[in-house]
Design brief:
The strands form two sheets. A nine-stranded mixed β-sheet has the order 3-6-7-8-9-10-11-4-5. The chain is an alpha/beta fold. The protein has helices spanning 59-67, 109-120, 135-144, 157-160, and strands at residues 5-9, 15-19, 22-23, 27-30, 33-36, 40-42, 55-58, 75-79, 98-102, 127-131, 148-150. Strand 7 (55-58), helix 1 and strand 8 (75-79) form a beta-alpha-beta unit. It is built from four helices and eleven strands. It has one domain: TIM Barrel. 20% of the residues lie in helices and 25% in strands.
Amino acid sequence: MTDETKTGKDGTGVAKQRTETVIRPESMILDKAIVASFTTLLLEPDPGAAAGPGTCIPLVGWLERRDAGLDLRGIGVIANGADDLAGLEAHLMDVPVIALQFPVFSDGRAYSHTYRLRKTWRYPGPIIAFGDVLRDQLLYMSRVGINGFYMRADQKLEESLAAFRLYSAYYQYNDVAR
């Protein structure tokens, strides 16, 4: 799997950020099972001809293509915590998959997006978390409605599945069925 950001040192010893533009791990977790990945995340603002069935593109580009009348069949949406999803609400049934970016462990804004997508707007399709996704987050992400996970490269999928079995009962009410 390619990570969305990697840090390396150049000849001057200064850390540099490198951003991957395509993410598609060989395997992922979907509905609490390890499966082959089924979508490619194209992080470029304008992925051009690379966007097609089986890919996800950034929200702004997806909405621009929709407004231009382009064929979006099979093309999903990538959103990050700062994105305003309101423009997507009317088109949710046209979106086969939504990928939500978690750039760092401490950024939980995509949890709010997931709740709105599942509970308020009743989005039925897969919601995939990607980026800095760790085993410790899986149970909480799944309780809010995320059902797909592109784990960070250092996370073992088999070991991560154990997170779903941590608790058999909860104090918090949760009516998100996933």
